[in-house]
Design brief:
Elements: H1 6-11, H2 19-28, H3 37-49, E1 53-58, E2 62-69, E3 74-80, H4 114-130, E4 135-144, H5 152-158, H6 161-164, E5 170-180, E6 184-186, E7 189-192, E8 194-203, E9 207-208, H7 218-236, E10 244-252, E11 258-259, E12 262-271, H8 274-294, E13 302-309, E14 312-314, H9 316-330, E15 335-337, H10 349-354, E16 358-366, H11 368-376, H12 380-383, H13 396-414, E17 416-417
Parallel strand pairs: 3-4, 3-5, 5-16, 6-15
Antiparallel strand pairs: 1-2, 2-4, 4-17, 6-16, 7-14, 8-12, 8-13, 9-11, 10-12
Helix pairs in contact: 2-4, 2-13, 4-13, 7-8, 9-13
The structure holds zinc ion (2 copies).
Length: about 425
């Protein structure tokens, strides 16, 4: 007679009928990075009900639940809680109309699906607690603030995370992405890019627009830099490497006939390895300094790094183990290859604080019919609103169910079997 697997036994525990309503409530009440107070208190309330040891206010609004269940590995499961300053245009009955208190108020929307992550991790936490007889070890359910600003995970680490929780042997996280709802995708190695943002100030010498020979025009220097930076990826990076270098902002001057004193360029860089990242950063430094020298700038340029995301690099062994468990549970056709996404995440800062291996997988959230029609017409990029779009609208089911089950199955793949297996 076939015996039920521990994962199936835990999932059969049920009691997660509240997930969809909880999700819609979170979706209606999104909170910007570092302001996730309402979300955090809802999370903490639930964790307490299920017997988790609770830590709140970690790194601002971070919440951690620890469930010690005998000997065995310690597994950290992570969700991010923050929303984005986007005006929701999904037309959903539970769409957000939330704004900040500021003047003018900023619209707020869960446009990256972090409400899906929070709901699924809570669902998994409940099932793991209720089914504690089927596994042994320690589960840490960690809800972090401020993923979108790249400093939420680091903030928890700097606030003493390692003294609050047992060191995890493995860390797991998932992200809802524009794939068919209920489908999963995993992958070994670098799956999300490291991101660096940089602000460069070039100094010229301002004056009257009618007398350019008496000035050093920073607008021209900035323009040269912007054009020349395009050659970094095109001419210096090996063709097989994936690198993105985008100048997203150029600011200088106030009036057509005034040559300003300085110009500010902001750029964003995405890379998939430390060596290539260093090469690209060095190239930027060289080009900017050389253009300033070429234009006789009176002062060295200034460089300021901000919004730095680590590389999301999936451990080979952990990924293999989790992928095998997900395939067994969902069916091999439901668990695809993730490949590399040019998006970035700060999840990696959590396992890095413990030198623990980790894996991060993609959870599909798009209405299956919509996705398949777009795929047939070769129009997924045009017709399927992705993360950060005002029309990003993961369907609650089967997304929440799949995300909850994926967390449970992956966690159990890393924990020890329980006594009653
Ligand atoms: Zn996002
Ligand atoms: Zn996100």
């Amino acid at each position: 007679m076939a015996t039920e697997s521990p994962a199936q036994a835990v999932l059969d525990g049920g009691g997660t009928g509240w997930l969809e309503e909880f999700y819609q409530d979170l979706h209606r009440h999104p909170e910007l990075s570092h302001q996730e107070h309402r979300t955090a208190s809802k999370v903490a309330e639930r964790l307490g009900e299920w017997g988790f040891e609770k830590h709140t206010g970690v790194g601002g609004t971070g919440v951690i639940g620890v469930l010690r269940n005998g000997s065995g590995p310690t597994v950290l499961l992570r969700a991010d809680m923050d929303a984005l300053p986007v005006r929701e245009a999904t037309g959903l009955p539970y769409a957000s109309t939330a704004t900040t208190d500021g003047d003018p108020p900023t619209p707020v929307m869960h446009a990256c699906g972090h409400d899906v992550h929070v709901t699924c991790l809570l669902g998994a936490a409940q099932l793991l607690a209720a089914g504690a007889g089927h596994w042994s070890g320690t589960v840490i359910a960690l809800f972090q603030p401020a993923e979108e600003t790249a400093d939420g995970a680091r903030g928890m680490v700097e606030d003493g995370l390692s003294s609050l929780i047992p060191a995890p042997d493995v860390a797991l996280a998932q992200h809802v992405l524009p794939l068919p709802a209920g489908r999963l995708a995993t992958g070994s190695g670098p799956v999300l890019a490291a991101a660096d943002s940089m602000r460069i100030t070039v100094h010229g010498s301002g004056g009257h627009g009618s007398m350019p020979h008496t000035t050093i025009d920073p607008v021209v220097v900035a323009a040269m830099i912007v054009v020349r930076l395009q050659t970094v990826v095109a001419r210096e990076v090996p063709p097989g490497e994936q690198v993105v270098l985008t100048v997203g902002s150029v600011q200088a001057g106030t009036k057509s006939n005034v040559i300003p004193d300085s110009a500010v360029i902001e750029l964003n860089i995405r890379t998939y390895g430390e060596q290539i990242r260093t090469q690209v950063l060095d190239a930027i430094d060289r080009i900017v300094r050389a253009e300033c020298a070429a234009s006789r700038c009176p002062q060295e340029p200034e460089f300021e790094m901000f919004a730095r995301f680590p590389l999301t690099e999936n451990d080979h062994d952990v990924t293999e183990r989790v992928t095998a468990a997900l395939r067994e549970h969902f069916g091999a056709d439901q668990v695809g290859e993730m490949g590399r996404w040019s998006a970035s995440e700060d999840f990696g800062d959590l396992p890095a604080a413990f030198d623990a291996p980790s894996t991060f997988w993609a959870l599909g959230g798009i209405d299956q019919e919509l996705f398949e029609r777009a795929a047939r017409e070769g129009r997924v990029a045009q017709d399927v609103p992705g993360n950060h779009s005002s029309k990003f609208a993961p369907v609650p089911q089967p997304t929440l169910d799949a995300g909850t089950r994926a967390m449970v199955v992956a966690a159990l793949a890393c924990l020890s079997a329980g006594a009653d297996r």
